[in-house]
């Protein structure tokens, strides 16, 4: 008789770390780690929102100067454009700044996002290829 279960209890799937998954998929993985917004005067960022390639990936009310964990993982190919807004209710109405991360980058970085002298955030992230 033909055996249709050739695995005999072997494990078929495994959990991959982000860097392993990126290698298999052929793209890159962006891991957003934390954000810290600095208050300068009355013009503060109280609800930063992060968009990657036009899609909102994170938004949270924060206290000025507080480091806030993000812990978001995003797959991308080529490069990823990161935009920072100060969220006001239901839209991305207060643009702060944007920058592009190339897929070739693969080191932990801290990137200041500056829309003006009074609006500053530091974003910690890492890219896995």
Q: Determine the number of helices (DSSP H or I, runs of at least 4 residues).
A: 1
Q: Per the principal axes of the C-alpha atoms, what is the gross shape?
A: elongated
Strand percentage:
over 45%
Order of helices and strands: HEEEEEEEE
Low-confidence regions: none
Helix proportion: under 10%
| N-C termini distance | 46 Å
**Helix/strand structural class:** mainly beta
CATH homologous superfamily descriptor: C2 domain
CATH architecture descriptor text? Sandwich
**CATH class category:** Mainly Beta
How big is the Rg? Answer: 19 Å
Observed structural traits:
56% strand; four-stranded antiparallel sheet; mainly beta; elongated; 129 residues; single chain; 1 helix
Overview of this protein structure:
The chain is mostly beta strands and 129 residues long. It has a single domain, classed as C2 domain (Immunoglobulin-like, Sandwich). Helix content is 6%, strand content 56%. It is built from one helix and eight strands; from the N terminus they run αββββββββ. The strands form two sheets. Strands 4-1-8-7 form a four-stranded antiparallel sheet. It has a four-stranded antiparallel sheet with strand order 3-2-5-6, with no helix packed on it. It is elongated, with a radius of gyration of 19 Å.
């Amino acid at each position: 008789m033909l055996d249709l279960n050739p695995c005999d209890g072997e494990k078929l799937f495994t959990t991959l770390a982000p860097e392993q998954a990126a290698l298999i998929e052929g793209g890159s993985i962006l891991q957003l780690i934390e954000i810290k917004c600095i208050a300068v005067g009355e013009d503060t960022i109280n609800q930063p929102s992060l968009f990657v390639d036009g899609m909102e990936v994170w938004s949270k009310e924060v206290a000025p100067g507080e480091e806030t964990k993000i812990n978001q993982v995003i797959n991308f190919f080529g490069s990823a454009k990161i935009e920072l807004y100060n969220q006001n209710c239901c839209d991305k109405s207060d643009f702060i700044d944007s920058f592009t991360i190339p897929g070739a980058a693969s080191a932990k970085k801290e990137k200041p996002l500056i829309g003006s002298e009074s609006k500053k955030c530091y974003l910690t992230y890492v890219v896995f290829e």
